Amino acid sequence: MKLILQENNISILKINHREGIFEELTKWAREHNVRAATFFFLGAADEVELWWYNTPEKKYYKKTFKEQWEITSGIGNIARKGGEVLIHMHGTFSDKEYRVYGGHINKMVVSGALELRMEVFQGSIEKAYDEETGLNLMQ
């Protein structure tokens, strides 16, 4: 990952070919002590694992796609859970037939590049497991 531009609390980052977005953002958040941030991104990926959450069952269903994807939009946040970095992101992806898929991103490997805008906030967003929903929610 490469820092392209930084002004105040906003960073423009480039995630390179074959890099995993979770690994790169987690490393960035640890190195810069990020405890609260939002981000959005676009680019291309060639491996994506999407999850869909069934709230009544408290269960994620997952599907892995290993093909070329345009990232039409991605959005997420960085928080902490028990002091550890917790990244939450969703995205939409289009294939070569212009079909669009989307959901909670659990894994994504960049092909080509990914351009990301991150806004870091002072303070901390803390998340904890919620028994009622089965999710890690902001506190």
Automatic annotation (TrEMBL):
**Which InterPro entries does the protein's record reference?**
DNA_bp_PD1 (IPR025707), PPC_dom (IPR005175)
Q: Which domain of life is it from?
A: Bacteria
Query: Which Gene3D superfamilies does this chain map to?
Result: Hypothetical protein, similar to alpha- acetolactate decarboxylase, domain 2
PPC domain spans which residues? 5-139
Q: Name one Pfam family in it.
A: PCC
Q: What is this protein called?
A: PPC domain-containing protein
Organism this protein belongs to: Candidatus Wildermuthbacteria bacterium RIFCSPLOWO2_02_FULL_47_9c
